[in-house]
Amino acid sequence: MEWTDEGIVLGVRRHGEAGAIVELLTRSHGRHLGLVRGGAGSRMRPVLQPGNSVSTVWRARLDEHLGHYAIEGTRLRAATVLASSHAVYGVTHLAALARLLPERDPHEDIYEMLLETLEDFDDPREAAMRLVRFELAMLTELGFGLDLTACAATGVSHELIYVSPKSGGAVSRQAGQPWHDKLLPLPAFLRGADEARPLSSDDDLSNGFRLTGFFLMRHVLEPRGLAHSDAREGFIAAVTKRRAGAQGQAGS
Amino acid sequence: MSSSVAGPEIERLIQLLARLPGLGPRSARRAALHLIKKRDALMMPLSAALDVAIEKIEVCKTCGNIDTQNPCTVCIDPRRDSAILVVVADVADLWALERARATNGRYHVLGATLSPLDGVGPDDLTIEALVARAHDEKVTEIVLALNATVDGQTTAHYITDLLQDASVRVTRLAHGVPVGGELDYLDEGTLSAAMRQRTLF
């Protein structure tokens, strides 16, 4: 068995003295593990960092074997994120999220979206919005997608400002008013028509993470006995801090 | 069918030696044979040294280093600068810094770095003890000497967040071109990090 593909490094586990078991999200073969000989060595370590893009050849005698990877780095972005707290937390969290995908099952849309999300961590607000959208896409990919296009109660597609925690469907301002306290707020940047609009407030950001966090926990993490990663909390805190710092500078 | 060429005691010795880093079954067999041949000159002193090590080696209750005394030699050395606390992931990193004589400060060994893949969380590291040490008024600087990996730097940022209310300067090791490194052979990530963190010449 042999195939060639491109992939993103999700994690590396040392194997023996010099080898490493590398977990990649590949474009056409999904999340796939393989053994890299010399993966723990100084030549390969910079390449085998979460978030890096690689080109790879996988070989095994039988398809069900772990197999061996021959890996070459194509875009080593991990080194560029190390100095920034929100970026390093973001990469760790994205890798942890992608690890929730079933093994050896192609998810090309998620692969593309992960590439886009990893590509730019310069602006913390933009990165945060992309990360929330990635979490939404993960929910969809895992079979728990939210319907944010029309009101679950009335069918209207305007003034969608809530999400029902029961159905995962959007709810309009008018229909949701009586249950205001029980519904989850839908941030502006996730409302279809307003998607291109930048974040208007910190509330939008925290509402976005609250929304995806709620459904990820209920449908994906809790059934597997998992909790949100520390990196997710770290990312949110780092983005909030950076934003507060920027606002403080602008105000003075 | 494989058959053992030596008695069970020798086979056991070979099996145990094969578990050491850098040794496979073949090299363990060679090492065992060498020990047996040098019974008086090597095997017995090694056995005695292992007995002493088992009995005396402890983990330092202050910094997490391993030594035959507790607190360790580094912690009780009065010539060490108590104002600088160098945080390392592992004892091997502490030894590497000591070999290089890179610092005269004291150390704090975390035990590992945060790693979601390996299930290592903050509670598995000695972060709480580090935060307590950072609040000692003698300490003015915490140097995060952690690996330049995503896991290492995630840990560094996590610790930095926790040390916000301690009145210490938090620094980290520089990332960039290694001594003897040729730019042509460096990965682009290291190069761009080095360029971003360039210093005045």
Largest sheet of chain A: 5 strands, antiparallel
| Total DSSP helices of chain A | 7
* Largest sheet, strands/sense/barrel of chain B: 4 strands, parallel
> Main interface pair?
A-B, 36 and 27 residues
Strand residues, percent of chain A: 15-25%
What structural category arises from helix and sheet content of chain A?
A: alpha+beta
Q: Would you tell me the overall average pLDDT of chain B?
A: 92
Write the element-wise H/E pattern of chain A from the N-terminal end onward.
EEEEEHHHHEEEHEHH
Indicate the percent of residues in helices of chain A.
25-40%
Round the Cα radius of gyration of chain A to an integer and report it. 20 Å
* Binned strand content of chain B: 5-15%
Give the distance, in angstroms, between the N- and C-terminal Cα atoms of chain B: 68 Å
Distance between the termini of chain A: 63 Å
Given the C-alpha coordinates, what overall shape of chain B results? globular
- Structural category of chain B is alpha/beta
Task: Kindly state the number of beta strands of chain B.
Answer: 6
What does this 3D model show about the protein?
The complex is a heterodimer of chains A (252) and B (201). With 252 residues, chain A is an alpha+beta fold. Chain A is built from seven helices and nine strands; from the N terminus they run βββββααααβββαβαα. In chain A, strands 3-2-1-4-5 form a five-stranded antiparallel β-sheet. In chain A, strands 6-8-7-9 form a four-stranded mixed β-sheet. Chain A is globular, with a radius of gyration of 20 Å. With 201 residues, chain B is α/β, with parallel strands linked by helices. Helices cover 42% and strands 12% of the residues of chain B. Chain B has helices spanning 8-17, 25-37, 39-56, 73-76, 91-99, 127-134, 150-162, 188-196, and strands spanning 58-59, 66-67, 81-88, 105-109, 141-144, 169-172. A four-stranded parallel β-sheet of chain B has the order 4-3-5-6. Chain B is globular and about 65 Å long. The relative contact order of chain B is 0.08. The interface between A and B is medium-sized, with 36 and 27 residues.
